[in-house]
Amino acid sequence: MKYPKYLQPRGTIGFVAPSFGCAIEPYRTAFDNAQKKWKALGYQLALGPNCYMGTGIGISNTPQACGAELTEYYCSADNDVLISCGGGELMCETIDYVDFEKIKKANPKWYMGYSDNTNLTFLLATLCDTASIYGPCAAAFGMEPWHESLQDAYALLCGKKEMVCGYDLWEKNSLKDEEHPLLPYHVTEPRKLRMFGTKETALEIEGRLLGGCMDCLVTLLGTRYDQTAEFAERYKEDGIIWYLEACELNVMGIRRAIWQMKRAEWFSHVKGFLVGRPLIHGQEMMGLDQYHAVCDLLEEFGVPMIMDLDIGHLAPMMPIVNGGYASIKVEGNDVCIRYMQK
Question: What is the C-alpha separation between 111 and 117, in angstroms, rounded?
């Protein structure tokens, strides 16, 4: 696994928009403020041509333009790390125009984003053996003040932190809107982990992290970009710790996604599952809830399943080094992830 160089003082942060750009509020004002904050920290900025675009369908621009921007900025020596402007809907169309062979040969670079950005963070690992960060997008860094999770993501980019832990409270209902674009997370709900597949209340597992947003993962499954089973086999000595979360999938959709990934043999050599709170939280349909949607199909693997973690769409999120080797320690309601460059 290739680990990129960390962001250095006075380095250059690149911004790209392979999914949504920051074309509308509250994202535009938040992104503008994020740039001010990065500059105040002493960094140079390099904005891709699509960062403020909103002419595409489900993405910032045409798939061709988005793919060209992503390839150029990833391979460019004029920026040191990349942060995606936002998530979106159809980044899967962008990747048809990304030159993964060129990216694979380039010097590895940290790329950070989540949700629709699974289309790159996941493929950087499985196609290019390169670690990335499943974490906040650019506009989130415009909030005043930064939440601890943003400080963690920043520290991870800079190589100043090797461990992140869960946060005490999470946001059920955001207060951010067009008139209040810089509000911080409205955290009101206490974190409460749920553990399945083990009777232990304290455990520690080590392995290589892989995953992302299930909405995107099942779109990639079975395509020419799907080399997931090969990745699991390549790193079988480490074992795979899957981290998963859902955006628009209801509990039935989550169960279908788990079934599909399982039948595609993605979960070979699995050592554990980390499951974030789904955006549609607390839903029940025909007797099925978000827990049984996952656990009923995964219990046969005989590994721990830790659910309702700070991963994904219900903020805050622990930044995850996708493709990275890590030790996950859970004790009661506390969870910490320690990253190791292996």
Answer: 9
